[in-house]
Amino acid sequence: MIASLVALVRSVQRIAEGPVDTSARIGSTVSLKCRVADQDGTVMWTKNGFGIGEDRNLSFFANYWLEGSQAKGEYHLRIANLTMSDEAVFRCSVSATNRSQLALSREARLTVLVEPEPPKFREEVSAIVKVIAGRPFDISCESLNGKPEAQINWALFTQRGSVKEWIWLGNETFSKKAEEFENSKQSIREEAKVIKRSSRTRDGKYNVVSNLTFISIPEDDGTYLMCLADHETYDKILPVSVKLDVNYPPMVKLSLANNTKLIEGQSATLICEAKAKPAKFLKYFWYRNGTRIAVANPNVIVYLFKNLFLIMFSQKA
Question: What GO cellular component entries does it have (predicted)?
Fold first, then answer.
């Protein structure tokens, strides 16, 4: 009787190793595990609940077959040259017999990944784009035919010597591949507005469009506006960029030469520093107590050096 009980225990079939959720690129080959212990019934794989065959060659599927040692209970499902139609939920099972109950593995989802096209601007733009400081600027970027959808972010990038600086536009930054931005100065300009929309194609891929609206400042002149796309299939983030040529009105700084003190009855030299783009339209005018000073006044000496404008008042000015 004891021998009969031992034999009964040994005959209980089970899935010793089952498949797990798997993601793989389209066109690649994957193997879903199934190892049976104490096999008594017939092993069969199902795809979305439907059986795909009981023989190891799986003749109804040209790119499916079973591999491994049958003597060791190995019925691993190998799928070659993955296509979108191979994305499904798979399960390994062993049929019931008069001595053993049905044995089922957990369900495992096979996800097919498709590398999207490199990001690109939706509108045709030149390598250098002219913008005006203080005014909204709109631009769109897209990533097409990816699965799942790509992640798109915007940033301003500049490099001065060995120092790299990233200014993220909007309230999102990359985290998955953050190491790519290590040893860089980073900041966020949250007032920039980013609107994203995604659509699914007939063959199950995704198109993503990101629309950016931001207001540039004079300091953005010469920086690169970057549309950055990331995806599970990318080894690194892919960029597309334009260089910003920012026009801005004069920025004026008035100071006293050499930080000297004004002393009643003595001459004084004032320095006017002005910066604008384009600079060729920059003109200087001096006012005192709301009255414009005539340059031809013999009591006023004027010097002009690039963006520096010096004016010296004599005692009688």
Answer: cell-cell junction; plasma membrane
**CATH number of the domain where residue 64 is located:** 2.60.40.10
Domain annotation covers residue 313: no
- Specify the residue for token string 């500049």: 158
Q: How far apart are CA 64 and CA 168, in angstroms?
A: 46
pTM of the model: 0.79
How far is it, in rounded angstroms, from Cα 310 to Cα 44? 91
Q: How far apart are the first and last CA of the chain?
A: 125
The beta-strand segments (E) located in 68-200 are: 76-79, 88-94, 103-104, 108-113, 120-121, 128-132, 136-146, 151-160, 163-169, 185-189, 193-200
CA angle 231, 233, 236 (to 5 degrees): 70
Mean per-residue pLDDT of the chain: 87
- Cβ(67)–Cβ(20) below 8 Å: no
pLDDT band at 286 (very low <50, low <70, confident <90, very high): confident
Same domain, 86 and 126: no
